[in-house]
Amino acid sequence: MLAMDYRGPYRVRTTDKPMPRVEHPRDAIVRVTRSCICGSDLHLYHGMVPDTRVGMTFGHEFCGVIEEVGAEVENLKAGDTVLVPFNIACGQCHFCRQGLYGNCHEANPAATAVGGIYGYSHTAGGYDGGQAEYVRVPYADVGPVKIPDWMDADDAVLLTDVVPTGYQAAEMAGIQRGDTVVIFGAGPIGIMAARCAWLFGAGRVIVFDHLDYRLDFVRQYGPAEVYNFREVDDVVVFMKKTTDGLGADVAIDAVGGDAKGNALHTLFGVKLKAEAGSAIALHWAINSVKKGGIVSIVGVYGPTGNMVPIGNVLNKGLTIRANQASVKRLLPRLIEHVREGRIDPKAMITHRVPLEEVADAYHLFAAKLDGCIKPVLIPNGGR
Amino acid sequence: MAVPARRPAAPNRIVPAEVLGWGVDAEPDNDPTWPMRDRAGDPGPHWPRPALQRTEVKILQSIEYARRPAVFGTAVPPRGLSGVVRRAAFRWSESSWLHWLLLMGADRVNVIEGVADDLAKARIPNIPAEMGARAEWAHNRGGLFRKIAVAGAAAAVIAAAIRRRRV
C-alpha cells in the first residue's frame, strides 16, 4: 500500500509499505479516505520530536472505511465509515474512565507522560499513522465513531482533532459570559478556538498571528478581533491597553513549539533544540492574562523544558490548564454543533492533495505558501 | 505605575449576541479540574486490563511504567547504530534530559542510516522532491532562487577555503 514515509527533517515521500494487520483482538484496519496534515505534524517534520524514526508514517487526523476488525470488536463491521479520534484509548484504565481519553495508560510503552497517538513518533507509542491507504486502529471498539449519513467526509476528518482541540482549548479556559479571550496563533486550532470561545459566552475574542491571510480568515470565521504581532511594539503592553490595564481574562496558546516572534526562542528552541520548541506564545499568554486568570495550552511542545516566566504564574496567581484533546468525550456535542451549523469545519480546508504529492503538501503547509490553512491528503481517490 | 490610557474601541470589535451560537455552552460551574474530578466509575490504579498485545519486535519501554501497556505500535523497530543509542536512552527516565538528548541524537544518526539504506537498495533519494521543491517552484519561485543562490555562495566560499588551505 502507498504511505507517507518520513526520511528526516524536512524530507518526506510516499513509499510502498506492507499492509497493516490486526495485531490485537481489539484492532481494526481502516481504509483511509481523508487524512489531514496537522500543525503538530510540522513539529515532527521539523525534527523536533524525539524518537521520530526514519520510515515512519505520520497522520493522526483521518477518517475512512472499516476493512477488517479483530475478534473482540463488536460495535463495528467491515464497510462502516468512521472518523477516528487521534488519541488511542483503551476506555477502561484509570484515566479513560475519568474522560481523559488523551491520557490513556494502556497505549504507549515509551512514555508515561504521553498518550498513544497515531503517527506521532515512537514517543507517542510507535504507531504508523493515517497518511496512508490503510492504517491499523487499536482499541477500535472505543475510539472510532460512525460518521452520520448527513455529515460530509471533509467535516468528519476535522472532528478527529482540529475541532475537539479548539473546543477543548476554550473549555479548559473556563470562559465565563463576557470574558475577554486572547488566542495566540491563527492556525486551524487557533481559528477553531476562536469560534468555540463564543459558544462558551466570550465577550471579546482577540487573535494574534503574523500571517495576514490567516488573520483575515479568522476575522470572518471566528469572528475575532485580529492583530499582526509584527505590527505591534509589545504584545503584552498592547493587551493591557486594550483591557483597561488588567489583561485578558483567559489566554490560549494555540501554537506550541513552532512559534515565531522571538529570535531568542527561535534560536534555542527551534534551531539549537536546547529547549522543547519556541515558547514565545506561551510567554505572551502568561504575561497577557490578568491576575487570577487562566492560561489554556493546546500548542504542542517537546518533552524536555522551555523558558517561560513561571515566576509570573506564581505572582499573578494563574491557573494553567492543558491537555491533548479528549476527542471521544467531546464528539457527541461537537457533532451536534456541526449539525446545527454552529461550527463549519470544512470551511478551513484550503488544499486537497493526492497522497502521492505528500512532500509538496508538507512543504506548502510548513512554508505557509499559497494561502494554506488546512491541507487534506486524499488516499484511495477519496473512496 | 500609571494605568495606560484605554485604546479607542477597535474598529473590528464584535457584538457577542450577534455571533451564531453565542453562549450555548456557557457553564458557570466550569471547574478548573474538569473532567479529572469526575470520579464516577473510576477504578483507581487497578482496572480490568485489556488483552496484552503480543509482539516479536523490540519495544522500548519507559522505566516509569510498572508494567507494559497492553497495546503499542510496531511501526519502526530500533535497529542499527541509532537503535543501540535508543536502547541506551531507555536506561534513564522521562524526567532525565539525557534520555531525550540520546533519542534526538539517535534520530540524527537514523537520517544518515536512511540515506545509506536507500543507496544499498540502489535508490538515490530525490532530496529536492522530498523537500517539496515542486511546491516551492509553483508558489515561491523567488524564494527558491534565493535559496539556490545562498547555497551556491556557501558552497563557493567553502570550496575557496579548501583550495586556499591546500595552497
From TrEMBL, chain A:
GO molecular function per UniProt: oxidoreductase activity; zinc ion binding
* The keyword Iron is assigned to this record: no
Cofactor(s) named in the record? Zn(2+)
Pfam families (alphabetical)? ADH_N, ADH_zinc_N
In this protein, which residues make up the domain named Alcohol dehydrogenase-like N-terminal?
25-145
PROSITE patterns, per database record: ADH_ZINC
Which UniProt key words apply to this protein? Answer: Metal-binding, Oxidoreductase, Zinc
Q: Which InterPro entries match?
A: ADH-like_C, ADH-like_N, ADH_Zn_CS, GroES-like_sf, NAD(P)-bd_dom_sf
Q: Does the keyword rRNA processing apply?
A: no
Query: Which ranges carry the Alcohol dehydrogenase-like C-terminal domain?
Result: 188-265
Q: Give the similarity note.
A: Belongs to the zinc-containing alcohol dehydrogenase family.
Please report the name of this protein according to its UniProt entry: Glutathione-dependent formaldehyde dehydrogenase
Q: Which organism is it from?
A: Sphingomonas spermidinifaciens
Which lineage?
Answer: Bacteria, Pseudomonadati, Pseudomonadota, Alphaproteobacteria, Sphingomonadales
Automatic annotation (TrEMBL), chain B:
Name the domain of life this protein comes from.
Bacteria
Under what name is this protein listed? Uncharacterized protein
Residue numbers spanned by region Disordered: 26-49
